[in-house]
Amino acid sequence: MSQRQKVAILGVDGADFAYYQRWIAKGLTPNFAKLAKRGRIGVLQSTYPPVTAPAWISFMTGQQPGSHGIVGFAAPSDGEYTRKVVNSSSYPTPTMWEIAGDQGAKCLVVNVPLTYPIRPVNGILVAGMLTPDGVDFTHPKEFQPELRLLQPDYKIDLEWQGYKDRGHDLVRDQKAMTRARAELCVKLLQSKPWDFFMTVFTGTDRLQHCLHEHVMAIDDDEAVRRDSLTAAVRDYFVTLDEHIGDLMEAAGEDTNFIVVSDHGFGPLKRAVYFNKWLADEGLLTLKSPSSGSNRRAFKRALNAVGVRRSTLTSVGRALGLGDKVEERVQRLNPHVGGIDWEKTQVYYFPTNGFFVNLKGRDMFGSVEPGAEYEAVVKDLMQRLDALRSPLDGSKLLPIVKRREELFQGKQLEQLPDVFVEFLDQPFEAFMQDYDVPEVFMEPDWANGTHRRNGLYIGAGPGLAAGDEVEGLEIFDVAPNVLHLLGYPISEGMDGRFRPDLFEGGGSGAKYQAFDDGGDDRYGITEDEEKDLEEKLRGLGYL
Length: 542
Known about the structure:
- There is one protein chain.
- The chain is α/β, with parallel strands linked by helices.
- It folds into two domains: 7-268 and 448-538, 3-Layer(aba) Sandwich (Alkaline Phosphatase, subunit A); 282-441, no CATH class.
- It is 37% helix and 16% strand.
- The chain has 19 helices and 22 strands.
- The strands form six sheets. Strands 7-6-5-8-1-9-19-2-20 form a nine-stranded mixed β-sheet, sandwiched between helices.
- It is globular, with a radius of gyration of 23 Å.
- The two termini are 45 Å apart.
């Protein structure tokens, strides 16, 4: 491109393409409609699986999960069955704003999920979802007091699980959080130098998880008149559209606007507990119920007095007991402590992945590499393929694939061996529990869950207008944003350059190698990780 252009990315967590098509046609979201008319709209396909953590990481790095190694809210931990909560040190790959900033672009990044611990940027960054309480959450950290002056009501997130049977309160508080975020962003756009701006609104996701039936009805005038909660939910989405208009005005007509979501949404009828299913199938073997509950009680007692798994491990190694203590400590974890690993062939890893309990890879591996591994994988896939919906007897899993069929990249070996996907079926499988009464359980307050069909809208002086965008995946966005900004595309990105997105065809894309930079500067403490685990529980993901 001949000159650099400003780019403003408006993230709308969980925005579904089909829903926004209806709302635009109904006239509920005129600012979304304005952008779609000026530019192009289409489906933005999420990752496999369509989960917040891998999706936003793929979005900001331009890499698919086979390259960055993240497929859920937990990151791989070599040699252990347990995993650590994902954070910004889980993906050392540079983000699009880090690459642009290193080449001179001034960046404003507000509330993008998984940006804590803070990684430096050329400008201002405010960390998003999965930031512990009581920490410095801005770069530079000196901006934090200014943020509180600019917007005293600013909040990073709101956990919907604490609002059961209080839908009106949830909508009210989400609306207040969204307003404060939008007002902060408007002030930043008006007062700070910037070339690249991004923010993410997360309330759209939170409301859809537990008030999804109301979200689906907001374009039904009769439903809105009949039900005050449906009316309140409509008001939230209408007000969000007004905030989008405020951001558009603050950024200016010469800005290229890109609306993205990490995934779409659909109805939820049952939560699926695959570790329970594996136990029923004889592929995962449990110890006696008393041993599992005793270990959980012992772990809770140790934690209550400040003794953590890592503390026991360190003491054991200091006494020369080494790996024996490590193995015993691993068994204290409530997610793995009740499993007889020597007799277990397969275990489930959230989200939508199955690991073979492989010798040489897993701490207590039972399956030999080679022919035995292949036989277990084949048997597992056949059993999964035969599963039927408890609702209507239809095929439960439209997709049952080996990881090699879905992914490629340097982190492929970190991923589960087999993946499944429900597509439009009303099921989710976020939990790894095995000690539940049934495989298919009522999802309590939740009634909405993720789908792959997210939302893309692109409009501006450098972006093409016209027909619906086709074939766009979430990791395609980053390389095209860099090109729009006038910078080379990283050679490490999996995303494709899409000339059709640009006015005049967007010719002249250049590529360059960028260093990962390593992750030695980053990391979270054990207390911070515990805080993040509690936040994930509050969001329904643990």
